[in-house]
């Protein structure tokens, strides 16, 4: 659980004629995490690529055409979805093109009819709106347009600008007739021909939008408008019929589309493996990572599929190093028990641990819940969170892990609510099993500091364990989060505990001081020791003075870093106090409104809204603060190298998971 599954690097040389059937078997097994052999074996760089990238592009284009049908098809419940068809391997382009073209041919007439109806509907809608604008109370537009005495304009104007226009035309004979009132009104304006210039200037100043006048104004009649409305109604019915027909056709095609899509996906899976292969005229070579417990199955399958014509090399990842002597990039597979799976989300929010690191998920699960509960301790609020978590679990399987995490946070909040004696902010309903935050602040701060020291100590231990697993304990002995820092930190913590428990200054000058000063002083020996061990060329690369200054700064970094990291956990107590303090404000407001008319009802409304606000705002803030302490104060001690998630290529996407 704490260590990654042992990995082997499996490399194979096979005949080129066997490559496709071997890759097909590898995808069926679903255990190989492929790697590029040319990055680790220089001789493989002289071999050729397989050209799988171009083939993948061609398959992807055909899949996109099918995806349009899938996206538009009616959703089926999971229980009615067809069973997965047998794996097909590579699908011929001609076969796929014929099948895809047949599907598109069945949909094309309906789609074209739908597009034509939509286009016609848009045209008629625009014309209807235009005609409606040109029909102000049965005015004979053709007579007005032909008048030699009157200048007429019809269009749209904002209602709030009409008085401004009327004022501009107040000194001349004019008619300003608004109709079809709304945010913008249809407007009919008439003046004498001699005042036409004034009309146009005034209309331009107020933002008037003139309607386009048809050439045959006699056609602008109410009957014409009514005919258009009838045609629009017919089009609406036609579009509804076409839509229903399209839905039925897509539903009928859906099984075939899904089968074809699966065949393409299988081909793309094989090609994704083939991209990692290198080939010569007659041979092929590839490499990848396999869990040690599954290596035997893969090797047996390779030899069976090739009739024994395969050269297979298996190397334990623990014996691999990069050319520069560093740690190989081995994919990581942590097999976690089911109850820890939700907390892996928190770890992955920071990164994937490297292969030789210990998985911190167990420690994160415990520490995150404790910090969250301490900062959000309330029985009622915890109950609300737990209910939200259950809702997420039941509502959506994709949110199951997140829901379980929220449910756990709600449960631990309820536990701390019992310790604090708080139920929706009321502290008189139940007795506190431990302390009331606002009445025992010193106890809360001491507990937070003690918890922080413990979590930092675990981080230091994990870092030392990481050094041992990497066989780098001596090389990294002087690391700022290494053994020397751990001894000094624990000795300082012991001095602090003794001083608090016994309240005696004499204890501070005891032997523990030597365990603080000696490890820190040992940092001055770093250069000579590493030079003698061969880990660096010179004892004092920057000169003696520069070396002394560098060591002094490093010691100061250790002292300040450990102190700051520990003190940072005071925020756990501070936010616990803030959570309780917010209720003081809520209850104060509730008391203030209770004296007003209807005060009893208003008081309860304030309490309900106040609790909801605290749950939402404090819940977000507390989560951020707990994650901040995990990532910066805890992970910062040991999480020095990111790893790669083990992702085997498979026809099935769920062959391996993080759970047993």
Explain what this protein looks like in three dimensions.
The protein has helices spanning 19-29, 52-72, 93-133, 141-145, 162-168, 196-205, 222-274, 292-305, 341-348, 361-375, 379-395, 400-420, 441-469, 483-502, 512-521, 526-532, 544-567, 570-594, 599-634; strands spanning 7-15, 33-35, 48-49, 150-158, 174-179, 184-192, 209-210, 278-279, 283-291, 310-316, 331-332, 644-645. Helix 14 (483-502) packs antiparallel against helix 15 (512-521). The chain is extended, with a radius of gyration of 38 Å. It is an alpha+beta fold and 660 residues long. Mean pLDDT is 85; it is low at 73-87 and 654-660. The chain is built from 19 helices and 12 strands. Among the domains are: 136-220, Alpha-Beta Plaits (2-Layer Sandwich); 358-637, no CATH class. The strands form 3 sheets. Strands 1, 2, 3, 8, 9 and 10 form a 6-stranded antiparallel beta sheet that branches. Helix content is 57%, strand content 9%.
């Amino acid at each position: 659980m704490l260590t990654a599954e042992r990995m082997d690097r499996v490399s194979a040389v096979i005949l080129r004629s066997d490559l496709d059937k071997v890759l097909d078997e590898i995808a069926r097994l679903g255990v190989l995490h492929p790697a590029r052999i040319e990055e680790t074996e220089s001789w493989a760089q002289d071999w050729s690529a397989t050209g799988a990238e171009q083939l993948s592009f061609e398959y992807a284009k055909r899949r996109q055409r099918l995806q349009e049908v899938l996206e538009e098809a009616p959703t089926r419940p999971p229980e009615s979805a067809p069973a997965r068809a047998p794996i097909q391997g590579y699908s011929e382009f001609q076969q796929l093109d014929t099948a895809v073209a047949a599907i598109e041919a069945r949909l094309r007439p309906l789609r074209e009819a739908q597009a034509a109806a939509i286009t016609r509907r848009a045209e008629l809608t625009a014309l209807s709106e235009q005609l409606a604008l040109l029909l102000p109370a049965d005015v004979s537009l053709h007579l007005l347009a032909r008048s030699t005495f009157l200048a007429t304009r019809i269009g749209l104007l904002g209602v709030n600008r009409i008085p401004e226009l009327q004022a501009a035309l107040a000194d001349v004979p004019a008619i300003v007739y608004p109709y079809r009132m709304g945010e913008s009104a249809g407007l009919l304006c008439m003046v004498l021909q001699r005042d036409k210039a004034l009309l146009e200037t005034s209309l331009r100043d107020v933002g008037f939008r003139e309607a386009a006048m048809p050439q045959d104004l006699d056609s602008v009649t109410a009957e014409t408008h009514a005919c258009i409305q009838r045609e629009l109604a017919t089009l609406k019915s036609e579009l509804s019929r076409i839509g229903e027909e399209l839905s039925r056709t897509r539903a009928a095609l859906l099984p075939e589309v899904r089968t074809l899509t699966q065949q393409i996906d299988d081909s793309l899976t094989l090609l994704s493996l083939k991209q990692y292969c290198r080939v010569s005229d007659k041979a092929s070579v590839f490499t990848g990572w396999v869990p040690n417990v599954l290596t035997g199955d893969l090797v047996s399958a390779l030899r069976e599929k090739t009739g024994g014509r395969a050269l297979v090399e298996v190397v334990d990842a623990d014996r691999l190093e990069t050319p520069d002597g560093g740690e190989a990039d081995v994919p990581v597979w942590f097999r976690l028990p089911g109850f820890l799976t939700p907390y892996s989300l928190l770890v992955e929010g920071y990164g994937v641990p490297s292969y030789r690191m210990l998985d911190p998920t167990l420690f994160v699960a415990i520490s995150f819940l404790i910090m969250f509960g301490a900062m959000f301790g309330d029985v009622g609020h915890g109950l609300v969170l737990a209910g939200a978590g259950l809702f997420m679990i039941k509502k959506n399987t994709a949110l199951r892990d997140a829901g379980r995490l929220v449910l756990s946070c709600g449960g631990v909040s309820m536990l701390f609510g019992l310790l604090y004696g708080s139920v929706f902010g009321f502290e008189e309903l139940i007795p506190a099993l431990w302390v009331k935050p606002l009445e025992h602040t010193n106890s809360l701060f001491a507990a937070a500091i003690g918890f922080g020291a413990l979590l930092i100590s675990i981080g230091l231990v994990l870092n030392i364990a990481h050094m041992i697993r990497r066989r780098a304990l001596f090389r990294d002995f002087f690391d700022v989060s290494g053994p020397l820092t751990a001894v000094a930190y624990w000795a300082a913590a012991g001095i602090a505990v003794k001083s608090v428990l016994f309240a005696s200054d004499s204890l501070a000058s005891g032997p523990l001081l030597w365990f603080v000063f000696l490890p820190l002083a040992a940092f001055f020996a770093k250069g000579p020791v590493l030079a003698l061990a061969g880990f660096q060329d010179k004892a004092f690369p920057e000169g003696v003075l520069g070396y002394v200054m560098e060591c002094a700064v490093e010691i100061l970094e250790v002292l300040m870093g450990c102190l700051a990291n520990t003190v940072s956990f005071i925020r756990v107590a501070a936010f616990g106090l803030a959570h309780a303090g917010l209720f003081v404000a809520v209850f104060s407001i509730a008391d203030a409104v209770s004296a007003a008319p209807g005060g009893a009802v208003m008081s309860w409304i304030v309490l309900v809204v106040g609790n909801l606000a605290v749950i939402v705002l404090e819940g977000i803030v507390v989560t951020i603060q707990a994650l901040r302490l995990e990532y910066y104060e805890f992970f910062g001690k040991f999480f020095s190298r990111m790893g790669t998630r083990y992702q085997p290529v498979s026809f099935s996407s769920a062959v391996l998971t993080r759970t047993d």
